[in-house]
Specification:
- The protein has ten helices and seven strands.
- The chain is α/β, with parallel strands linked by helices.
- 43% of the residues lie in helices and 13% in strands.
- The strands form two sheets. A five-stranded parallel β-sheet has the order 1-2-3-7-6, with helices on both faces. Strands 4-5 form a two-stranded antiparallel ribbon.
- It has a single domain, classed as 3-Layer(aba) Sandwich (Rossmann fold).
- It is globular.
């Protein structure tokens, strides 16, 4: 049992780095920006009746690591990450891991799927909440806004959307690619209770998810791409790059000292 969140974060970040290095896979930056939120959700928030949807599917490594940290995946499972024919594909697979309901390789659809689950829970009088983690870049997608309109119109009280707002996407900053201004203000304009937090501050994360506010509601988590690794932080290239042995060792040393 991991005693503290700081302990948990160090071990999970180190395991995430190792998994990505051994597989030679990129997308490590966006995994590190979202890992703290995922760890908090799986250790302190999500219950057996709740559903989690990872809309930003390229952060599958962080999701697998969070599931590993609660004992749902093993080290042997993580060693298969991104291998041919394994169940730990580069984006979340469907029908291979109990906690993963949808394959979300194509961005911009996770909120629609989450809204459907939330509406289904209402029709069936099922307990539990629905949490959806999106990237800030996904708000370039019209389907995301359509899902937001749908969620508010149908008053989906069990739905909580979380934005990993690291400010970077595949081809530049979110401001350069398609400037949305203040996303939190836009979500509030739709009538959502919206909290803005530091997505790496455990006290702020805890406070946001301690609120028992009927949804749909939103949490905009301001994060750093490559959080915890000095040469990756706020660097767009770590959306794609994989690590050299030297970079891996430096990254591992840094997260273990944190």
């Amino acid at each position: 049992m991991m005693d503290t969140f700081a302990d948990l974060r160090r071990k999970a970040r180190a395991r995430l780095l190792t998994m990505h290095f051994e597989s030679g896979v990129g997308h490590i930056g966006g995994n590190l920006s979202s890992i703290d939120i995922l760890l908090h959700l799986y250790h302190r928030v999500i219950s057996r009746d709740d559903v989690f949807v990872l809309s930003k599917g390229h952060a599958a490594g962080a999701l697998y690591t969070a599931l590993w940290s609660i004992g749902r995946l093993t080290d042997d499972d993580l060693r298969q990450f991104h291998g041919n024919g394994t169940r730990l594909s580069g984006h979340p697979p469907v029908k291979k891991i109990q906690e993963i309901l949808f394959a979300t390789g194509s961005l911009g659809h996770g909120l629609s799927l989450s809204a459907g689950v939330a509406l289904g829970k209402r029709f069936r009088s099922e307990p539990g909440r629905v949490f959806c983690l999106l990237s800030d870049g996904e708000w370039n997608e019209g389907s995301t806004w359509e899902a937001l309109i749908f969620s508010k119109h149908h008053r989906l009280e069990s739905l909580c959307l979380i934005v990993d707002a690291n400010g970077l996407q595949g081809f530049g900053t979110t401001k350069e690619v398609a400037d949305l201004g203040c996303l939190a203000e836009k979500l509030r304009a739709f009538g959502l209770r919206t909290d803005e937090i530091d997505g790496h501050d455990i006290k702020a994360i805890s406070a946001a998810f301690a609120l028992d506010t009927p949804g749909p509601r939103a949490v905009v988590a301001h994060t750093k791409k490559g959080s915890g690794v000095s040469f990756m932080e706020d660097k767009m290239e770590w959306h794609y790059r994989s690590m050299t042995p030297e970079q891996y060792q430096q990254a591992l040393d840094e997260v273990n000292r944190a």
